[in-house]
Structures are given as C-alpha cells and as structure tokens.
Amino acid sequence: MTSPLVKTIAPSAVRGIPLGESRLRSRYGGTVVGIKPMGNDFTYATADMIVEKGDVIIVTGKTAAVEAFAELS
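^ RCK C-terminal domain-containing protein, sequence as received from the core. Prediction below:
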C-alpha cells in the first residue's frame, strides 16, 4: 500500500522556519517531500529548507493526515 501525495500551497504552520523545526510529522502526521518555490522548479525537501508564502509543497503520509494538512492552506 502506498501513501498518497498531496500538492498544496504551504500553510503558515510550516512557513518561515526550517522544515526540520516545523515538527510537521509529529503535529500533522505528514512529511514534506518536495518544494516548489515561487518562480522555480520542484526540488527535494531537506530539513534545513525554509518554506515561504506562496511555495507549493508535496506532502505524503496517511490519507486522513495529508488531507487534513492540505486543508490548512
């Protein structure tokens, strides 16, 4: 069974701090696997990346968790 991937605009809960400090996985049950900064191409997410307003992120995890996280946008 594969985990779903959700593409969404980065919500304020993960913006302005390194992904590793956002505690996304423990708070929401999802993991950011890709980021598309405004005006750039998608790239793999790393713990030290800082997500900004308007960035598109790809999140994976359990279906209910990623859907709930996507609704934060």
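Helices lie at 19-22, 24-28, 63-70.
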